[in-house]
Amino acid sequence: MSRLDLQKLTLLLALVAGLLTFGNSFFAGYSSQREQLFEQTLEANRAYARKLADTTDQFFLNSRRELAYAAEVLSTRFDERGTARPNGSSSRASSSAGP
Question: Which one, of 38, 35, 57, lies nearest residue 46 by Cα?
Fold first, then answer.
């Protein structure tokens, strides 16, 4: 059997230390990049959700305005009894016209 001398032990120790250092730096880089990727993805999702919420809010506001306008227009076309008036006539003209 060959004996391990000091030179071989030193070389083995240097190789193990180098491999451990490489492994540690690789793991640290992987962990750091993974964390950054998660944070960037979360921030992008937050921004998208904020924009989608603003767009939805604006859609509902516009819908309410359109419905209010349509209700106002339709309310002028009905008399007090809830029946539609013919176009061009008002409720006063139809009630004041006698036989």
Answer: 38
